[in-house]
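Key result, reporting period 2: structure in, sequence out.
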């Protein structure tokens, strides 16, 4: 009976996800009839050639990116909240996002120290993702090394926060000595964006994303056992150290690649797992992982639709919209703390 109820939940959420996906593709500064959009997505030829370019090369990759980013961040948040048994843990508590931001900051702002060596021969489409990935990888390595030297799981959380503070301080120093144009360039990246990926970039992003998703599906049993504490997990034969490193690695891969390709996007990973737990009233990760993935995609599609300011030519920063949405949700959840399932 429980499975039947969850099946209904998943069907309704999947239908809503598909509907919002088409709505997202239909929004933009150029008005395109919905029947033309559906026809184009199904392989047809629209009335105007420019519409096909807009739909296939810009709107469709952006909508797919929104789903991947929203679902990936939400799964990261679920993994972190389970590992640390802390409802306020999110995908960026380990400093992975800050590490990615530091990589981008060194690329953009570091040219002030190196006379433009880093910034030339101009920032290609791959420069920012590569710099962000390297920064995230360095912080990930440091966190895993530190995690293997401490036994208390809360110590890892504090170490991650300290890495985040350290990288933020380094970025502040770089920004202090940088020119206004470079700071503005870095600031625009930090706003987050879902619409700058080509199909080639999206393919790389999706490949790494699916590696992280498949990894998360292999640790459902350890995740469920972690909910009852490490001692209980040990009694079930769970290798605590190995599974802890796997969870950290999967979270870092997902958070790192998402930050690399779309910039830092806040609150989705923190708020969506709580919404999923309230809707599904379960702590079983076999249900929660697909649930947060679908809900995360839905939430980010809604935030992106709001950010596009329909009927307007302006687009708001996606990071600001997710924060405006996520912060009240987190406050509301804290007020209703007894409803939070950890």
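The corresponding designed sequence is given below.
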């Amino acid at each position: 009976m429980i499975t039947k109820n969850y099946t209904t939940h998943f069907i309704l959420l999947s239908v809503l996800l598909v509907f919002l996906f088409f709505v997202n593709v239909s929004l933009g500064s150029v008005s395109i009839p919905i029947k033309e959009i559906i026809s184009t997505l199904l392989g047809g030829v629209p009335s105007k050639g420019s519409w096909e370019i807009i739909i296939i090369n810009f709107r469709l990759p952006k909508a797919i990116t929104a789903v991947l980013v929203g679902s990936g961040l939400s799964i990261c948040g679920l993994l972190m909240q389970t590992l640390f048994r802390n409802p306020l843990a999110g995908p960026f508590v380990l400093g992975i996002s800050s590490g990615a931001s530091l990589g981008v900051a060194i690329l953009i702002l570091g040219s002030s120290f190196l006379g433009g060596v880093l910034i030339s021969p101009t920032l290609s489409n791959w420069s920012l993702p590569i710099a962000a990935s390297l920064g995230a990888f360095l912080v990930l390595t440091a966190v895993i090394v530190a995690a293997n030297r401490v036994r208390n799981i809360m110590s890892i959380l504090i170490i991650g926060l300290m890495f985040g503070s350290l990288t933020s301080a380094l970025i502040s120093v770089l920004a202090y000595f940088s020119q206004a144009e470079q700071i503005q360039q870095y600031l625009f990246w930090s706003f987050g964006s879902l619409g700058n990926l080509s199909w080639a970039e999206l393919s790389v992003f999706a490949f790494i994303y699916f590696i992280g998703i498949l990894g998360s599906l292999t640790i459902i049993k350890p995740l469920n056992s972690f909910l009852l504490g490490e001692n209980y997990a040990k009694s079930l034969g769970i290798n605590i150290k190995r599974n802890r490193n796997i969870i950290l690695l999967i979270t870092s891969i997902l958070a790192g690649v998402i930050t690399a390709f779309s910039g830092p996007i806040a609150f989705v990973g923190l708020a969506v797992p709580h919404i999923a737990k309230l809707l599904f009233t379960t702590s079983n990760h076999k249900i929660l992982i697909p649930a947060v993935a679908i809900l995360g995609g839905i939430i980010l599609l809604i935030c992106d639709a709001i950010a596009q300011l329909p009927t307007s030519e302006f687009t708001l920063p996606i990071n600001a919209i997710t924060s405006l949405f996520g912060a009240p949700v987190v406050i509301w959840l804290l007020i209703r703390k007894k409803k939070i399932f950890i």
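The radius of gyration is 21 Å. Residues 20 and 175 are 38 Å apart (CA to CA). This case is discussed further under Risks and Mitigation.
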